[in-house]
Amino acid sequence: MPADIPVKIVPVPQYLGEHEDQYAFAYTIHITNEGDVAITLLNRHWIITHGNGHVEEVVGDGVVGETPELPPGARYTYTSGAFIPTRAGSMKGSYGFETESGEAFRVDIPEFALLAPDALH
Asked: Which one, of 13, 24, 84, lies nearest residue 54 by Cα?
């Protein structure tokens, strides 16, 4: 990652309830371009770990059907969701970005817990 392009990523998960033997979670992601050049979010790579140790990977273009451009200082927020078969799990991953001059780089998404309210006793 170019040293002069700091990108802040803050995940906020929320438990939504049980649905057809799955546990539903929403997560809101706040992405802030703290650098001095415009960047575009091109793709995502998620690693979802279920409470039983099973790991699922999700790779795709953009986020929620968009490839947002973030000028310097801009913040982009979106909400998406995940279903897992266990009461607890976690998500982490990375986003692929490109600068306005075409330089590609990745930024890690901090790991966050997916927890049903009574998942930890």
From this structure: 84
